[in-house]
Amino acid sequence: MAAAPHNPKAKPPVSVASDELPLAKPVDHVPDGSLASLREQAAECQACPLWRNATQTVFGAGNPRARVMLIGEQPGNQEDLEGKPFVGPAGKLLRSALDAAGIATRDLYVTNTVKHFKFERRGKLRIHKRASASEQAACRPWLAAELLRVQPDLIVALGAMAAQTVFGNGFRLTAERGVWHPLPGGRRGMATWHPSAILRMPVEGREQAREEFFADIEALAAAMPE
Ligand code: SF4
Q1: Domain segments of the chain: what residues?
Q2: 164 alpha carbon to ligand 1 midpoint, in Å?
Q3: Does the beta carbon of 43 lie inside 6 Å of ligand 1?
């Protein structure tokens, strides 16, 4: 049998035992394939119950060679309907902060910790519900695969769920927000507020959180490779 042709552009095979994986929480396997293939595979995922009531899988999007990956929590109502991350009100606030910092979305890969919308119905409304620990664990292989394919230098976790996935359960957003931390593989990571959390805050704390969020995105701009 002929040997497989060597492809010098191919990334080396990945392993979940790799200390290159910048996730503090465990991952029991990493799906194989290109980002396009992963997106197709994730569209059929039934590894936890969240696919049943959601419209579609909301996989990550953006530059597959981005040096920066933003990791949110889970899709909201609008993301579920459109099938894209950060297209709802939270996405609008995120884009405002990116614009203010001079960061082009073409330089980013944006994804979520959990890829299906979780909600409860109240009348005609679908109200966001936080994914459980087991749902987050079931979905983590998709995030791990995205990280290993994109290989970002800088990772920004938006919100506590993403921050604890990257830095561990002991991470406290209120105490450690906006601080760069070393991550496996020579990467660096930082956590900041999730824009939807800012939008849900009581008025008295909202403006301060918004200013902190904008400052953290400015710090990201300053840290981005030329
Ligand atoms: S939330 Fe994640 S693990 Fe659960 S069904 Fe959707 S893609 Fe699969």
Answers
A1: 35-223
A2: 18
A3: no
Q: Of 137, 141, 139, 116, nearest to 31 (Cα)?
A: 141
Sheet holding 108-112, edge to edge: 61-62, 108-112, 68-72, 154-158, 187-192, 181-183
Measuring from atom 6 of ligand 1, which residue has the nearest CA? 116
Low-confidence residues of the chain, pLDDT below 70? 1-18
Which residue in the block uniquely carries the two structure tokens 């450690």?
Answer: 176
Express each pLDDT in 112-142 by its tens digit.
999 999 999 999 999 999 999 999 999 999 9
> How far apart are the C-alpha atoms of 45 and 184, rounded to whole Å?
28
In Å, how far are 198, 200, 203, 204 from 207, measured between CA atoms?
8, 12, 7, 7
Q: Other C-beta atoms within 10 Å of 3: how many?
A: 5
User: CATH homologous superfamily of domain 35-223?
Assistant: Uracil-DNA glycosylase-like domain (3.40.470.10)
CB 86 within 8 A of CB 134: no
pTM: 0.91
